[in-house]
Amino acid sequence: MMLNSKPIGNKIALSEKNENLSHSQFAWTGMVSIDDTALSVTDTGGSGIPVIYLNGQFANQGYWRKVIVELGSEFRHITFDERARGKKSKKSADYSFDTCVKDVDAILAARGVEQALVVGWSYGAFVAAHWASRNPDRCLGAVLVDGAQPYDWMN
């Protein structure tokens, strides 16, 4: 088995060279192709409960660093830069809300995650709530931070 290392902040991510290894076994950072773009993704790997973090409007995945450090290795942390935010391969033709919700599925599929806890902040809270409501069998729970919703938002 051969591993390449790449720094992520103050940690080292290991990129898999052996196709037989599980996606969750090692930390990984890279680009995930989705439709007409590719999004930057960081996955801490490990066997903990998968948590996917959804950013606030105009924020990027770096905003979650302190939260991830505080929560520690009991969780498998997955962050990504949403369309029009942070690092991406190129512009997309579709920045709709529905596409943002579908991107969560694409990121989880690319990382081999069947079920996850979804955490959303601000705009990400809206995306998280809609993803959770559309995927009750895949959602282990939802944490919605500072995402003001009207009382009848799901009707």
Which spans of ≥5 residues are poorly predicted at pLDDT below 50?
1-21
**Count of individual helical segments:** 3
Give, in order, the helices and strands.
Answer: EEEEEHEHEHE
Category from helices, strands and their pairing:
alpha/beta
What would you say this structure looks like, in words?
This protein has 155 residues and is of the alpha/beta class. The chain is 21% helix and 33% strand. The protein is built from three helices and eight strands; from the N terminus they run βββββαβαβαβ. The chain has a six-stranded mixed beta sheet with strand order 3-4-6-5-7-8. Strands 1-2 form a two-stranded antiparallel sheet. Helix 2 (97-110) packs across helix 3. The longest helix is centred in the C-terminal third of the chain and has 14 residues, at 97-110. The radius of gyration is 15 Å and the shape is globular.
Summarize the structure.
With 155 residues, this protein is an alpha/beta fold. 21% of the residues lie in helices and 33% in strands. It has three helices and eight strands.
Structure keywords:
155 residues, alpha/beta, 6-stranded mixed sheet, two-stranded antiparallel ribbon, 3 helices, globular
